[in-house]
């Protein structure tokens, strides 16, 4: 989720910008492994909070993901009209 930069410390924002992400907190889940959440920075949308996904622990900006999904759906809808 996109987070207001006012609630993220300057140090974490700088680390996220320079290194790509900064550890935020660990959340215990019903599954075996707890989830680590990170603050990351998107050039277009600013700071966001996400947990590492997949083998490479990729973080994804939710707004960029939403835009990409809408674009794909839009392209599919245009294609179905042909
Ligand atoms: Zn983004």
Give a brief outline of the structure.
This protein is of the alpha+beta class and 82 residues long.
Key terms:
82 residues; single chain; binds zinc ion; 3-stranded antiparallel beta sheet; 3 strands; alpha+beta
Overall description:
With 82 residues, this protein is α+β, with helices and mostly antiparallel strands. The chain has one domain. The chain is built from two helices and three strands; from the N terminus they run H-E-E-E-H. The protein has a three-stranded antiparallel sheet. A hairpin with a 3-residue loop joins strand 2 and strand 3 (46-51). The chain is globular. It binds zinc ion (ZN). Zinc ion is lined by residues 42, 44-45, 61, 63-64.
Topology:
Elements (H helix, E strand, L loop, with lengths): L9 H10 L1 E7 L7 E8 L3 E6 L10 H19 L2
Antiparallel strand pairs: 1-2, 2-3
The structure holds zinc ion.
């Amino acid at each position: 989720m996109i987070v207001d930069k006012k609630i993220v410390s300057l140090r974490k924002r700088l680390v996220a910008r320079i290194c790509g992400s900064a550890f935020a907190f660990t959340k215990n889940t019903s599954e075996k492994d707890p989830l680590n959440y990170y603050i990351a920075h998107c050039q277009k949308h600013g700071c966001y909070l996400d947990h590492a996904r997949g083998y490479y622990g990729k973080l994804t900006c939710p707004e960029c993901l939403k835009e990409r999904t809408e674009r794909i759906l839009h392209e599919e809808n245009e294609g179905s009209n042909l």
